Amino acid sequence: MNILGIGPLEFVFIGLLLLIIFGPKDLQRAGKSIGQGLRKIVRSDTWKTVVQTSKTIKDLPNELIREADLDEIRKTLAQTKSDFGSIAPPLHQTINSDILPDNEIHQNLKTAPPAQPEPQKTQQGTD
Hints:
Shape: elongated
Radius of gyration: 37 Å
Helix content: over 70%
Strand content: under 5%
Structural class: mainly alpha
Order of helices and strands: HHHH
Largest sheet: none
Number of helices: 4
Distance between the termini: 90 Å
């Protein structure tokens, strides 16, 4: 169980640290004041603005796609991809059976004589 990326052992460690820092008598008062401070922050207009802005930024890419009618293009692209996906296996089989029977090209390459290197021209110098 992780809360905000903090596991149970880390919570125990944080609790022990708070107990050491504030002591057993002041720990209750410190917890109460931290809770009141967090409540003020969460209920403030600034916090609500931050949350709303975060939501707007998170939804922005989807909103832009809808406004630009890219949703229809995305559907068309997905349909085309699936159409080509259904055509590819028979086409691959046709290529392998009709165009390249029995690996004819590979056999021809193995039996072909090696290419002869071109003769190199030598320059005669006058010394």
